[in-house]
Amino acid sequence: MNDLKWFFPESGSECLNLFNDGFQPHAGGTFLIKTSLKLSGLFDINSVADYKILKNTDTGIVLGSAVSYTDAASFLHAASPGNIISVALSQAASTPLRNRISIGGSIASSPKWSDITAPLAASGAVLRFEGSSEDIDYAVYSADRKMRKNNLVSSVSVPLDSIKGSYYRFTFTGFDYPTFTLAVSKRSDDFFVCAVNGARDGLRVFKGNSDAVIAEASQTLSFNSERGMSEDYILSRAISELRRLFPKGGADDE
Amino acid sequence: MNNLLSLDFTVNGKSETFTFKPDASLLTVLRDNGRTEVHNGCETGDCGSCVVILNGKTVNSCMVLAASAKGGDILTVKALGDIYNPHPIQRAFAESGAVQCGFCTPGQVLSTYALLLENPDPDVEQIKKALDGNICRCTGYKKIIEAVLMAGRLMREADNG
Ligand SMILES: Cc1cc2nc3c(=O)[nH]c(=O)nc-3n(C[C@H](O)[C@H](O)[C@H](O)COP(=O)(O)OP(=O)(O)OC[C@H]3O[C@@H](n4cnc5c(N)ncnc54)[C@H](O)[C@@H]3O)c2cc1C
Ligand code: FES
Ligand code: FES
Asked: Quick check: B59 and A4 CB within 8 A?
């Protein structure tokens, strides 16, 4: 453990070489520090300018992988006030943690309680890996453990017109790990993409009008019991919160 | 054999070389080097008693791998003032009765400092949000919020001469 080496690369290609040599990226470190760190080495990605990028393009907003939740939330809020990703990131954890937790570290470690998972999946976010120019669908990446392990995330892009909608995290107190999170992306008056994270089988995505989404979610979602709450209670809570996220009579809740 | 790292940080305006294990937290390194004003409450990122300001942002020093702070600029509560020359935030905490056992206070004061630098006149909701990572087992938060409001007033008055 104490033989852990540290590297401080300044470019994406140096990072990729270190990654291919078997060293692991360090972004916010909030996940890594809780592990046994039985690793040969870590490379800190915070000096790579491309990984700190925050930009508005024709196709949407690009967030570099080393950008913190705090910085991502304020940039996204300025571009589209009240959007599902900025609302989710600004409710996660606590202020000093949000100042450290990174986009890429959260996407890669993807804990069950992560506030980033549902809004990225609902909004159709795509990822870029270092050394590749291909867009990878976030929901596909999220479901593929091997893909997560074998790739260095350089950025994520979110289409501006799909981040409008609503977000909910089920917690006991403000600073708490959510039992489940819900994100609804409104694509039109009668077409929504809804992501539920924290279900028994992880992330689930439902598409359609509000009635179709609620019907499918009610029939197919299930949760594990947790913190004194039964499976049935968590499911009924998820469905009633989901109903609340949809605008009444098809109108938006913006 | 233990492989130790020697890296430079600036702590409260003074650049120093610190030698530590590669998996050490910033909290451990600071406390092992005499910065015991940085308190150790939980070491899991939950309580906020270990908060320091790293490169202008509050962080839980127990959740920061020290090596990743290489070259960083760190402020502990001692950078602000002491009992003989308190910062307006420290005065406000004392005068508002926002300190009981005092264990959480360094973290609360630093979170307040970071907030007031960014937003000199925050409302109660903004204060609650900025201090959401600082848990106090004694005061019940009302006095802490009053202290932040008073600190804001004192700092604005000082700025306006
Ligand atoms: C007390 C506490 C409460 C929390 N509460 C919440 C919460 O409510 N909501 C929430 O969303 N999060 C929360 N988190 C954060 C979450 O649990 C993870 O710790 C966080 O998402 C990890 O991000 P990081 O940047 O710190 O990653 P790191 O710890 O730096 O890395 C995590 C993993 O990802 C790998 N990695 C890092 N960057 C990349 C990259 N670019 N490409 C590929 N792999 C990479 C690392 O090698 C490592 O394996 C909380 C954390 C703590 C400590
Ligand atoms: S000691 Fe760091 S948050 Fe409690
Ligand atoms: S004053 Fe005792 S924990 Fe806050």
From this structure: no
Helix and strand totals (H; E) in chain B: 5, 5
How far does B8 lie from chain A, in Å, by closest CA? Answer: 14
CB-CB neighbours of A167 under 10 Å = 25
Domains of chain B: 5-77 (3.10.20.30), 88-159 (1.10.150.120)
Q: Within 6 Å (CB) of ligand 3, which residues are found?
A: B 99-104, 136-139
Centre of ligand 3 from the C-alpha of residue B48, in Å: 11
- Give the pLDDT band of residue A254 (cuts 50, 70, 90): very low
> In a mutagenesis test of the A interface, which of B65, B119, B127 is the best target, namely the one with the most A β-carbons within 10 Å?
B65
Pocket test for ligand 2, best of B29, B43, B64, B110 (most atoms within 8 A of CB): B43
Q: Give the residue ranges of DSSP H helices in chain A.
A: 12-20, 69-79, 84-91, 95-98, 103-109, 117-122, 138-143, 145-150, 210-220, 231-245
Alpha carbon nearest to ligand 1 atom 34, residue:
A105
Residue contact A46–B51, C-beta within 8 A: no
Q: What is the pTM of this model?
A: 0.97
Cα A107 to Cα A163, A173, B20, B100: the distances in Å are: 17, 24, 30, 41
**A67 and A156 part of one domain:** yes
Which CATH number goes with the domain that contains A196? 3.30.390.50
Q: Assess whether A14 and A69 both reside in one domain.
A: no
The whole-angstrom separation of Cα A65 and Cα A44 is 12
Instruction: Tell me the percentage of chain A whose pLDDT exceeds 90.
Output: 92
Average model confidence (pLDDT) for chain A? 94
Residues A170 and A182 in one domain: yes
Residues A31 and A126 occupy one common structural domain: no
Contact call for B21 and A2, based on CB within 8 A: yes
Residue B18 has pLDDT above 70, yes or no: yes
Distance of CA B140 from the midpoint of ligand 3 (Å): 9
Q: For residue B102, is pLDDT > 80?
A: yes
What domain range is A211 assigned to?
A: 163-253
CB contact under 8 A, A5 and B58: no
Question: Which of A161, A192, A214 is where one domain is finished?
Answer: A161
Assess whether A103 and A156 both reside in one domain. Answer: yes
Question: What mean pLDDT is predicted for residues B75-104?
Answer: 97
